[in-house]
From TrEMBL:
<dbReference type="GO" id="GO:0015112">
    <property type="term" value="F:nitrate transmembrane transporter activity"/>
</dbReference>
<dbReference type="InterPro" id="IPR020846">
    <property type="entry name" value="MFS_dom"/>
</dbReference>
<feature type="transmembrane region" description="Helical">
    <location>
        <begin position="311"/>
        <end position="328"/>
    </location>
</feature>
<feature type="transmembrane region" description="Helical">
    <location>
        <begin position="61"/>
        <end position="79"/>
    </location>
</feature>
<feature type="transmembrane region" description="Helical">
    <location>
        <begin position="334"/>
        <end position="352"/>
    </location>
</feature>
<keyword id="KW-0534">Nitrate assimilation</keyword>
<feature type="transmembrane region" description="Helical">
    <location>
        <begin position="269"/>
        <end position="290"/>
    </location>
</feature>
<feature type="transmembrane region" description="Helical">
    <location>
        <begin position="115"/>
        <end position="134"/>
    </location>
</feature>
<dbReference type="Pfam" id="PF07690">
    <property type="entry name" value="MFS_1"/>
</dbReference>
<feature type="transmembrane region" description="Helical">
    <location>
        <begin position="21"/>
        <end position="41"/>
    </location>
</feature>
<feature type="transmembrane region" description="Helical">
    <location>
        <begin position="185"/>
        <end position="205"/>
    </location>
</feature>
<feature type="transmembrane region" description="Helical">
    <location>
        <begin position="364"/>
        <end position="389"/>
    </location>
</feature>
<feature type="transmembrane region" description="Helical">
    <location>
        <begin position="411"/>
        <end position="435"/>
    </location>
</feature>
<comment type="similarity">
    <text>Belongs to the major facilitator superfamily. Nitrate/nitrite porter (TC 2.A.1.8) family.</text>
</comment>
<dbReference type="InterPro" id="IPR036259">
    <property type="entry name" value="MFS_trans_sf"/>
</dbReference>
<feature type="transmembrane region" description="Helical">
    <location>
        <begin position="155"/>
        <end position="179"/>
    </location>
</feature>
<keyword id="KW-1133">Transmembrane helix</keyword>
């Protein structure tokens, strides 16, 4: 491999290649992000078991879901500034090691308070997204940044879907093998994602580097690393905040569905934990192709219509998402609910990819901080939505037959919450559509969208 290809950003993405530090970093980054999401949402499909064992109320479940996303807000803002200064490798390594601790220890919870605190601490792992987007942005040329960011993000986000599918299976397997009782299975199942975070920490530190030119500690190029206050640079640009609101409307909803879909399917349609996890997992697996599709389409549109074209795409995707959410909420049966979850999930995840196809072009010296602020917006959206779900949820009791006996179960209905959320997303989609022309008028640093080749 020539020197040119080893220390310059790549202008092509071949996902089947491991050649060069750029592609090695790409694959390790998305794989690490995958297990971060797996650990972050590992408890979601097991909440029904934990809820019953710890005797959690509807309000307490709502508080736990809020805690799972709220810590990520500050973490993403802080991480964005840190990686601009110190580079992604060392920051990601420490994040993985520190966050492995609450994941491993949440199984020791014996009360609502301890469970809530561990869930809050686990939420910090959501800051991994900012590092992932920064690292792929710096490894690839402008013409392919959107595709690279969306592909890495999509593959990684699929970890949430994988958790919904595999965590109930892991819990069931531990019970079947006699390691624990069914009631305690969620405690032992969480050991797996905790261990995987430690494995990823080793791989990331050992086999990646901060940029194609090397680690930040050895670089002097201020266009790659920055000693300026990049957070203020990012915060002063109004485009950052428009993308922040847009990301709250797509990624914020994604986190909400990852957290609430398993309970929605068990309590609204009577699905078992395993079936609910499998169905909710479909939503997560859409990330594998949908988020990359959003980035690819956005890059192609950007080459012709620039920043304005990409923003128009984003607004259309948000409008489709809102309509799909409303239809999903009003589904009368589980079959229709699954289909509509796929429809709004496809547009939502494409919107995720389209948003981060725009992020690297806001300001090239503050990519980490812009990514951090926009990423935090996703979690602010998720937190506000969780508060809404807590207030809009209705408490139900229903008689069900278990082991031949009639048992009264406490259920939670989120239909009205999902309906209201759909109308809110529709409003944000309209707002982004209105603002797109205003955004396009600011030309600094975005002319490269149309013609950049990365050479």
């Amino acid at each position: 491999m020539t020197a040119q290809t080893t220390n310059k950003p790549l202008d092509k993405l071949n996902i089947f290649s491991l050649k060069g530090v750029q592609m090695k970093t790409f694959h390790i980054t998305w794989l690490t992000f995958f297990f971060c999401f797996f650990a972050w949402f590992g408890m979601a499909p097991l909440m029904k078991i934990a809820r019953e064992q710890l005797h959690l109320t509807k309000d307490q479940v709502g508080n736990i879901q809020i805690a799972s996303v709220s810590a990520t807000i500050l973490a993403r803002l802080l991480i964005g500034r840190l990686i601009d200064k110190f580079g992604p490798k060392i920051i990601y390594t420490w994040l993985l090691v520190l966050c492995a601790l609450p994941v491993l220890l949440i199984g020791t919870s014996q009360s609502y308070t301890s469970f809530l605190l561990f869930r809050l601490a686990i939420g910090v792992i959501g800051a991994s997204f900012v590092i992932t987007q920064f690292h792929t942005s710096i490894m690839f040329a402008p013409n392919i940044k959107g595709t690279a960011n969306a592909t890495a993000g999509g593959f990684g986000n699929a970890g949430g879907g994988a958790a919904n599918v595999f965590m109930p299976l892991i819990a069931s397997a531990l019970t079947a093998l006699g390691f624990c009782s069914s009631a305690d299975s969620w405690r032992y199942a969480m050991i797996f994602p905790g261990v995987m975070l430690l494995v990823c920490a080793f791989l990331y530190y050992r086999y990646t580097q901060d940029s194609p030119q090397g680690d930040f500690k050895n670089l002097k190029d201020e266009t790659i690393k920055s000693s300026k206050n990049t957070f203020l640079i990012a915060a002063k640009d109004y485009r950052t905040w428009i993308l922040t609101i847009a990301y709250a409307a797509c990624f914020g909803v994604e986190i909400t569905v990852d957290n609430f879909a398993p309970i929605f399917f068990t309590d609204s349609f009577g699905a078992t934990i395993a079936i609910a996890g499998l169905v909710a997992g479909i939503f997560g697996w859409i990330n594998i192709f949908a988020r990359p599709m959003g980035g690819i389409v956005a890059d192609k549109i950007g080459k012709v219509w620039g920043f304005d074209g990409k923003t128009l795409l984003l607004s259309i995707l948000l409008l489709i998402e809102g309509i799909g959410l409303i239809w999903f909420a009003k589904s009368g049966n589980i079959g229709m609910a699954i289909f509509m979850m796929f429809v709004f999930g496809l547009s939502l995840k494409m919107a995720n990819g389209a948003t981060y196809s725009l992020v690297p072009f806001i300001n090239p010296v503050a990519v980490g901080s812009v990514a951090g602020i926009v990423g935090a917006g996703g979690n602010i959206g998720a937190m506000l939505i969780a508060f809404m779900f807590k207030s809009e949820a209705s408490h139900l009791t229903k008689n069900v037959i278990e082991n031949g006996q009639t048992v009264q179960k406490d259920l939670i209905n989120y239909t009205s919450a999902f309906t209201l959320l759909g109308y809110i997303i529709l409003g944000i989609g309209v707002a982004v559509f209105i603002f797109r022309t205003v955004m396009a008028q600011k030309k600094s640093k975005i002319e490269e969208l149309a013609f950049a080749t990365g050479n």
